[in-house]
Specification:
heterodimer; A: mainly alpha; ABC transporter involved in vitamin B12 uptake, BtuC; two-stranded antiparallel sheet; 2 strands; about 5% strand; globular; B: mainly alpha; two-stranded antiparallel ribbon; about 0% strand
Amino acid sequence: MPFDVYLNVAVGGVLTGLVYGLMALGLSVIFGVVRVVNFAHGEMMTIAMYLAVVLCAGFHLDPLVLLLPIATVLFVFGYALQMGLINPFIRRPEHTQFLLLVALAIIIANTLLIIFGPDARSVQTAYGFQSFQIGPLIIDAAKVYAGAAAILFTLALFAFFRFTRIGTAIRACADNYTGALVVGLDVKRLYALTFGLGAACVGAAGTMLVLIVDATPMLGPGYTLLAFVIVITGGLGSMPGALLGGVLIGVTEALAGLFFTPSAKSMFAFAILVLVLLFRPQGLLGKRVT
Amino acid sequence: MIARPVVDVPRRGAILLAALLAVLLTAPWIVNDYLITVLILILYFAYAGQAWNIMMGFAGQLSLGHAIYVGLGAYVAAALFTQFGVGPWLGLLAAIPVAAACGAIIGYLAFRFGVAGVYFAILTIAFAEFARIGFDHLSFVNASSGLFLPVTQHGHNDLWRLRGGPVMFYYVILAATVLAFALCRVLLRSRVGYFWLAIREDEQAARASGIDTFRYKMYAVMVSAAVTSFAGVFYAFFYNNLFPEQVFGISRSIEIILGPIIGGVGSLFGPIVGAFVLTGLAEMLNTVLMKFGVDLPGVKQVFYGICLLFVVVALPEGVWPAVARRLGVAGERR
């Protein structure tokens, strides 16, 4: 195979990986602050994907226009979830939290199955078959838009955490729970905000992902696992790490699909995860905590 | 040593246990074939849950990828049977070391490098998924098109080769569940068991008081994996077909651990109670939904999820501790 085929596939992998990275960023933000592993992460993303599919088909809207509205819907969903259900569980053992979120995941996936049926749904866009040509590279327009949107969304989130008072307060909760309570922060509300922001990330990622893959109700568990792999590879709690992990996994999967068979591609993602956990448990860009 | 599983059982507990065992032993004469199949399923999950509980409930190591040990047990025994004509009990003798070795590899890698807590749980998922996709491409066991065991007429029961009707399988899994229960009770009251509990409660304190935590965590993973592998052998010979997707899948791992979590992690009865509650619930939902003529895919699972949610919110410690207090047999230490 000529070299430019590899390059084309790799660039496609990078762009898809950016969307994966945005999804994983949501998980990372939630775990980094609330210390709850969101086992319903992939299912929350399928909600966003179906919202995008329905709104695109119903109102002939473009997924790129829907990015912020759907992210907002998911934000509200995440906020309500943390306030209503998860807050009482934050000090409980991990297996109890796991059960709670698995139950939630089962409910979400099967509700989608009841409403939409098992068939795959996709969106049609004006630029669905367009591509950009740069030298030997031919890149899908949809993937370029999706990747660019993922970067913009991540930058906005980064700025929020870095420069706003609420963002600083959330980082304080993550650093020291007791300390945050002592200085009078409303930790439960900040946790809810954080879960909402994490959900908004998956909302945005899901909206972008319908440009690349078709929506089916049972996509959830696969993407939850993918998000784990990415977050741990990149380093939990590190925002650039999540994007880097996403890109790394995206490229790995794309190239593995090319060199071997597409069905074996996630084996390589898991192999990377195992290697990272063994030799750099804090992740590529993570800080070592003792 | 022989009497160890039965020493200082509270009187009331012993009577209840004997009554439950009597009911289960006579069940094939009382209930129909359908209910026997349901009971097999319940006991299967009770057994696998008990095995998982050794790792999580006793030693505090959360494994979310236990399907890997079920799958290895199933594939080793089934491959030996179909390719070389080796019977299931000899196959089990091969499956146990394979599963234990796999557990040892995962444990060694994780505990050596200080991978713990959520990270350890995700590492176990990663290994299970790795095995699933690997077996999906392993042509020696027919890859993703599945491994099938030859099905014979249910005329007579061949216990040695595990070919026969549901009643035989029922007694096999009942015996296995009783044995696993007894083993766990012995383990829990042994030196190893106390070390495990110490590690579960506070690993640093355990290490400070001289326990070789690495070694005892390794024991927990290996014993748990070895015990789980029989569930796989049973699965292979009961269902007669194996697909990597079906055996190693993450949903299989979740199924195994829901029982003990719902029943009560760390207690001996938790996995058994949990298996009865969950499988009973699923079957009840089936019946009720059938009565109302609802057969939309997903409806049952939504109700199932809501029930799980309800249990975990209402009884965070699990069902068994609450039931035990009611029955007055709460003496069992967690």
